[in-house]
Write a structure and sequence with these properties.
Distance between the termini: 44 Å
Structural class: mainly alpha
Strand content: under 5%
Strand order of the largest sheet: 1-2
Order of helices and strands: HHHHHHHHHHHEEHHHHH
Oligomer: single chain
Shape: elongated
Radius of gyration: 30 Å
Number of helices: 16
Helix content: 55-70%
């Protein structure tokens, strides 16, 4: 309806006839026709709960899931006197569409509210009770599918698929993946950034056992529950201190240096340079950042030692490895 139509008044008799037509069509399972009537009523500004719920029923029966969810979210956002009724409708809708994790999240937040009317509270608590085993079942099923897909991605050397699937495990029980992670961490075919993510997952879950990690022909043995986190690694902290003066003197220079360090360390981790290489790494970072400001600057043996040049080349190669799978 256009703006002029909204100024029209729906007389009580017309409203009654339209409502009767809408609910009769719905009873006869003529949901498309009923939806037309409900939309007309709503266009006239009639937003009574029974009208809105009638429209929702039609949308659900017609399989218009996204539209139904959108209306529920709009109704809940009003936070009017029917707030908890709409929560109940929305939770039931999500349940019907097998969105059990969404149901659990919604009800866990709402059930702590002391203002829920008693009849509705009982209904919501019962829905939560019925839904919870389905959440566990859904998560278990999803875990099986994800693991199968990750195994396939590992065996086919599909790095991009591995990347997405491993990141998908951030809030998941990783116990079923431990043996697979052991294989991935020592495989030369697995992208080093993916190995970094796996180490992070093991650390987040405080897995207390030793794992071999191979990167760039080198091997390290770590216990994730005791190994320092990436940003807390002694070398990373020492390097940050070496560059801290730039934070005040030249913030842009410092920020570029920090990003370079983060990417360098992200690809290498849990490997790291030896502390004896701290000065060389620092010089290489400063040289690369300076070169980004002055493209015509002379990066040669006359200005830098062979060790610094070698470190610069290593960092540039690691940048390429980082961006081969990561996006910024």
């Amino acid at each position: 309806m256009n703006e002029q139509d909204h100024k029209l008044i729906l007389f009580p008799k017309q409203r009654l006839e339209l409502e009767q037509a809408a609910f009769h069509a719905m009873q006869e399972k003529e949901f498309y026709q009923a939806l037309t009537y409900f939309d007309q009523l709503i266009d006239y500004g009639i937003n009574d709960q029974d009208i809105v719920l009638g429209k929702l029923t039609c949308l659900i029966e017609l399989g218009k899931q996204s539209e139904a969810e959108e209306i529920c979210e709009e109704l809940i956002a009003r936070k009017d006197e029917d707030y908890f009724s709409y929560i109940n409708v929305y939770a039931t809708l999500l349940f019907q569409f097998h969105k059990h994790k969404d149901v659990a999240q919604l009800l866990e937040e709402v059930l702590n509210d002391k203002g829920i009317p008693d009849p509705l509270k009982g209904q919501l608590e019962k829905l939560y009770e019925v839904n919870q085993p389905l959440v566990d079942e859904q998560m278990e099923q999803e875990a099986k599918i994800t693991k199968h897909e990750l195994v396939d991605a590992f065996e086919s050397n599909d790095s991009l698929a591995q990347w997405h699937l491993v990141n998908h495990l951030q809030n998941t029980d990783i116990a079923p993946y431990i043996k697979l992670f052991e294989q991935m961490l020592i495989s030369e075919d697995v992208h080093p950034v993916i190995k970094t993510v796996i180490v992070g997952l093991l650390q987040a879950k405080s897995i207390d056992r030793n794992f071999k990690v191979k990167k760039f022909g080198l091997q390290i043995m770590i216990n994730p529950s005791r190994f320092p986190y990436m940003n807390e690694h002694p070398f990373r902290e020492a390097l940050r201190k070496e560059l801290i003066n730039y934070e005040q003197e030249n913030p842009t220079f410092f920020q570029l240096g920090e990003k370079l360090i983060d990417r360098y360390f992200y690809v290498l981790y849990p490997l790291s340079p030896a502390m004896t290489e701290l000065d060389i790494v620092k010089e290489a970072i400063i040289a690369i950042v300076q070169a980004s400001f002055e493209p015509k600057s002379n990066v040669s043996k006359e200005n830098y030692s062979e060790d610094t040049l070698a470190m610069m080349n290593q960092m540039i190669e690691i940048e390429k490895i980082y961006f081969s799978i990561m996006e910024e």
